[in-house]
Amino acid sequence: MRFVIQFSYDGSGYWGYQKQKNKQTIQQTIEDALFKIFAIKTKIVASGRTDTGVHAINQYAHFDLDVNIEPEKLKIALNHLLPNDIYIKKVSIKPNFHARFDVKKKEYQYIINTGEYNVFENKYVYQYNQDLDVEKMEKAAQQFLGTHDFTSFCKKNLTNDDYQRTIFKIKVQKKEKKVFINIIGSGFLRYMVRNMVGCLIEVGNYKQKENIVPKLLKEKNRQKAGIKAPAEGLYLKRVYY
After folding, report:
1. CATH number of domain containing 176
2. Looking at residues 37-43, what average pLDDT do you find?
3. pLDDT at residue 155 greater than cutoff 90
C-alpha cells in the first residue's frame, strides 16, 4: 500500500532532508518514527531534498507498507513520535503516486530582514540588516523567467549534464522591513534558489546592475554569479502535482 504524507519542518536543527551517515536528517527522523510504529524498515521518497538549515512549509513524500491502518491514525501516531520541529499535516493512500516524479512545479520563498537584527528570527529569516533597492531587485528577477541553463546558479554535479530549468513566476516585494522573494519553477538544482537570491541581493545593494542576469546565464560560470544566500531564509512553500 502506498502512503503519501504532507508535512512541514523547521530545518535549523538538521543536516538537511536526505539521509547521511551519522547525521540527523529529516528523512532519517521520519523513517525512525515509522520503524517504531511498524518494526519494519521503510524508505520514504520525497519531492526533493532540502539542504542544511532550509525549512519546508509543505513537503511531500511517499512510502510503501503492507499494513492495514487508517491514514488519520497513522498521522496521529507519527506526530506523537516525531519531535516538535517536524509535523505531519496529512496522510493519504494513493497507489499510483510518486512524490518525486509526479512533480509539475515547486514554489520556494526566501525572506530577508532589512531592519534591525532580530535575535528570535536568526534561524528563520536572513538577517541582512541593511536597506535593499527592491525595485531594482524585482526588475532583475523578471529576467530569470523562462527556460534557461542555470549552470551559473547551481552546484555542478559531475553525473548531471542537464542544467536547464524553467522559471514560471518570480516576485520580489517588501512588507515593512522584510523582503519576500517567491520563485515558482519546474524544478531546482542544488543551491539554485539561494544563488539566484544572492544575485538579486547584489543588485539590491548596487554591486551588480539590474540587467546582469542574462549575461550571467550566458556565461555558465558559477564563479561569476556572486554570493550564495544563507540557508536560514529559505522555505519550500508548495509542491504542485
Report:
1. 3.30.70.660
2. 97
3. no
